[in-house]
């Protein structure tokens, strides 16, 4: 009987496709449940569409039910009085003002400049003195001294004493507030610049760095004042932690410098020092 049921049952398409195959694989399970899942999806989709379509009508009905009753307002009619006829007075046309009297043209006086004709002045001739007057003049052989004009004579040269005149060199004035970058005598740290570098390296706290930066560079600039103290310390480098520690280290060194000089006078001098450290 079991064999007859086996041969008489009509196999489905999925059983024919997955015959002699692993039916425990997911594809067979999906094919067998596909119809049921499709039916459920259709039913849920239809319900969702119906709910979405009915919801606006339900909301409108609820609003109508919860709306307040309309209040009636009794309006009493007011008798309207007839408009009075407006009496418009006709304005009398004003007479135009009389025209202004015509202006008489101004009479300009013409002044004629009469230039008199030039008249030649008569020549006045003085007659010569008579011969009796001319004979009264005396002549002699004595020379009469005339007016003398002063003559310029140059001053005598200074006496030669054998001494040479020395030229005095005028040195430029030195400013007490200006910061110089070029001086005659550079500022110097006690023990030299190598002593200053060793103090900086010994006072540098390397724990502020992570240790894997490799080679780190910066440039330290500061002003050596006239009394040997340092001010305006700055560090220009790409690493902020390295710059901050370099500033702290330089400021912590209290030794005074020998100030820079121009013409033998102490001046303010800007000092530059590159600083490089290797972190591994």
Written description of the protein model:
The chain is α+β, with helices and mostly antiparallel strands and 280 residues long. It has six helices and five strands, in the order ααααβαββαββ. The chain has helices at residues 2-8, 13-17, 26-66, 131-135, 193-203, 240-252, and strands at residues 179-180, 214-224, 230-236, 260-262, 265-279. Strands 1, 2, 3, 4 and 5 form a five-stranded mixed beta sheet that branches. The longest helix has 41 residues, at 26-66. It is flat and about 190 Å long. The two termini are 88 Å apart. Mean pLDDT is 76; it is low at 1-8 and 137-142.
Percent of residues in helical segments? 25-40%
The chain-level mean pLDDT equals: 76
State the low-pLDDT regions, or none.
1-8, 137-142
Major sheet: size, sense and barrel closure?
5 strands, mixed
Instruction: Note the beta-strand portion.
Output: 5-15%
Number of strands: 5
Radius of gyration, taken over Cα atoms and rounded to an integer in Å: 64 Å
Termini separation? 88 Å
Specify the structural class: alpha+beta
Shape: flat
Query: So how many helices?
Result: 6
**Could you give the order of the helices and strands?**
HHHHEHEEHEE
Quick description:
The protein is of the alpha+beta class and about 280 residues long. It contains 6 helices and 5 strands, in the order H-H-H-H-E-H-E-E-H-E-E.
